[in-house]
User: Which sequence fits this backbone?
């Protein structure tokens, strides 16, 4: 791993430069009358049709999680890692159910973030704030996961000396991230939306070639499954149990199902996924996409199988061991050992760009949340749209710096835990956001307390789990009533139970509920135009330039 | 779902859509259905090929639901109150 392959390096740098050019050029794509409006910078003008939305949503959802974290888990533990496939299969029917309602109410009322919606629906600034803060918090580890993915590729390529201080080691990562931050700052959501085309082209080419070419070189699928099975049966000296299994064992079924369900429920309350939904032009675009996005699930399933291919390649196993037993290296190493250097370069580029696009969308989404729900509500209620956009741009930079710190200081044994940790937190906004789309039965203060209980329980339980050589935050499951369960699901149940009980209590004592500014028709509306400012917020003191 | 009146679709349509989506979700949520290695499809244990086949199945189910619920685009402007 110590030498740098010049051909791969040139290809990676070349594709990075092309993508950078596209990122800056995106500022002039579908130019807006007034680019300094959050609908433009933060939601790309809210005008993406089925085609662009498909790439954008796919780009958001399939990230370094797909290329690095999932195959790493499959490489190390076998079938248990396939919960990710199950999750991405069930997520689209779930999206189909509630996302159109969320899109409609956001379009009718001019909301740009889930925090906006919650504040308007429940008439509660505090609840909006809780949702916004949770979104920002949960997005951080998810962005950090993207960085871990990029780092795995750079390590495999031999870039960044393994010794020396962390700043020198991570310098290429920092430079790449600074460039992305620059064009995101300038072009907003248009940049990742346009780059998503290149990203997907690279990914589909890499995956199709890999799935056809590599099994042939390894002696066929039969051999790959046998090699994986043989490894999974051996006993892990650390735990005294086998490493895993080729098919989920009965004892693991509950964990498998709750991890899949929890991840699926969480995905579309993440700010970046909501941003992708809000950027769609029409209501039907969402449903059509729910039926077309599973193409990405298929790709995820195939990439998960890369974990077994890596296991069946002795050179990869040796490389992972040499890299400190870091399973995240398995897919980049697989490319390095199986492909000619130029095609390995294409594969590396696919992973790097596939991590940069969602990182950009996530930072934009977190910036929208911060600007609308925290800055405009608490700090500067009279901000003009141009001021809002300036604040959002700065916030997107800050998000990236925060995530960079997270990634550089982090233990990297199982990066998938970063995503699962984010899921525990973000799922606690599910009652206010998703249940809120259907009913206002819950009292606003009950929802806030339920959220606080879910957050506290989830964080403490996650902190208490050990695994992968870490004393804390080592896993995302815990045992309840003899079943190993994803913490997010238990926290959500607690959250809903507390909210329901307190709602009854508050009703009984006559505690005043908030004012709902939305109307039933908003949830099925399909308007072409967007109100310039969110209805219900205080009008700006000085009329904006528009 | 309190949107029958607003969406202009009959309760029967909503019923069919609900059933299709529940089937799509439970197809992979109910792990005991596919946590087994036989029957194999070539070298692929059941666990793998079932999940991979369920991807297009759930896509088709969603597509049917989309066709059932599709409404003609209304081009009138909705003025926010």
Assistant:
């Amino acid at each position: 791993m110590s030498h740098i392959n010049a051909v791969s390096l040139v290809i990676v740098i070349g594709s990075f430069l092309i993508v950078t050019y596209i990122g800056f050029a995106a500022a002039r794509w579908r130019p807006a009358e007034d680019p300094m409006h959050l609908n433009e910078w933060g939601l790309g003008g809210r005008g993406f049709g089925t085609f662009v939305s498909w790439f954008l949503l796919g780009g958001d959802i399939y990230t370094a999680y797909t290329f690095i974290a999932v195959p790493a888990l499959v490489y190390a533990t076998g079938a248990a890692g396939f919960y990710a496939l199950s999750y991405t299969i069930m997520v689209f029917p779930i999206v189909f159910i509630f996302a159109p309602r969320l899109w409609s109410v956001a379009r009718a009322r001019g909301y740009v973030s889930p925090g906006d919606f919650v504040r308007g629906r429940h008439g509660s600034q505090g609840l909006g704030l809780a949702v916004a803060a949770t979104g920002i918090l949960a997005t951080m580890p998810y962005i950090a996961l993207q960085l871990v993915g990029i780092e795995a590729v750079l390590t495999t390529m031999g870039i960044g000396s393994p010794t020396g201080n962390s700043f020198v080691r991570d310098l290429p990562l920092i430079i790449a991230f600074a460039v992305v931050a620059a064009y995101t700052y300038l072009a907003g959501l248009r940049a990742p939306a346009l780059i998503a085309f290149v990203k997907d082209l690279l990914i589909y080419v890499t995956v199709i070639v890999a799935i056809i070419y590599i099994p042939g070189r390894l002696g066929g699928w039969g051999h790959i499954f046998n090699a994986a099975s043989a490894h999974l049966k051996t006993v892990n000296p650390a735990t005294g149990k086998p490493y895993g299994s080729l098919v989920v064992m009965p004892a693991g079924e509950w964990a498998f199902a709750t991890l899949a369900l929890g991840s699926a429920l969480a995905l579309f309350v993440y700010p970046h996924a909501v941003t992708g939904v809000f950027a769609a032009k029409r209501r039907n675009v969402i449903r059509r996409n729910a039926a077309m996005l599973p193409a990405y699930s298929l790709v995820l399933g195939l990439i998960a199988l890369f974990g077994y291919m890596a296991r069946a390649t002795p050179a990869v196993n040796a490389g992972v061991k040499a890299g400190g037993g870091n399973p995240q290296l398995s897919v980049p190493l697989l490319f390095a050992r199986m492909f000619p250097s130029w095609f390995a370069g294409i594969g590396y580029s696919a992973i790097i760009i596939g991590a940069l696009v969602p990182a950009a969308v996530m930072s934009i989404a977190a910036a929208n949340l911060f600007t609308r729900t925290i800055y405009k509500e608490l700090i500067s209620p009279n901000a003009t749209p141009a001021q809002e956009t300036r604040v959002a741009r700065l916030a997107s930079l800050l998000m990236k710096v925060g995530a960079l710190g997270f990634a550089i200081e982090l233990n990297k044994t199982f990066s998938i835990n970063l995503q699962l940790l984010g899921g525990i937190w973000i799922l606690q906004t599910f009652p206010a956001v998703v249940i809120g789309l259907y009913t206002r039965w819950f009292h606003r203060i009950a929802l806030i307390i339920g959220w606080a209980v879910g957050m506290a329980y989830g964080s403490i339980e996650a902190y208490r789990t050990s695994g992968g050589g870490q004393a804390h935050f080592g896993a995302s499951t815990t045992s309840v009533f003899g079943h190993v369960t994803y913490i997010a699901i238990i926290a959500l149940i607690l959250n809903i139970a507390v909210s329901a009980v307190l709602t009854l209590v508050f009703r009984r004592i006559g505690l005043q509920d908030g004012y709902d500014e939305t109307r039933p028709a908003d949830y099925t509306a399909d308007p072409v135009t967007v109100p310039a400012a969110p209805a219900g917020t205080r009008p700006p003191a000085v009329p904006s330039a528009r | 779902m309190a949107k029958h009146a607003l969406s202009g679709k009959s309760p029967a349509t909503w019923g069919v859509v609900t059933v299709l989506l529940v089937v799509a979700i439970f197809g992979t949520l109910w792990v005991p259905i596919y946590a087994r290695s036989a029957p194999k499809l070539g070298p692929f244990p059941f666990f793998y090929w079932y999940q991979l086949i369920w991807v297009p199945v759930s896509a088709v189910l969603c597509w049917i639901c989309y066709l059932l619920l599709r409404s003609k685009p209304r081009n009138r402007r909705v003025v926010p109150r």
Notes: The helical segments of chain B are 4-7, 11-29, 46-69. The longest helix of chain B spans residues 46-69. The two ends of chain B are 24 Å apart (CA to CA).
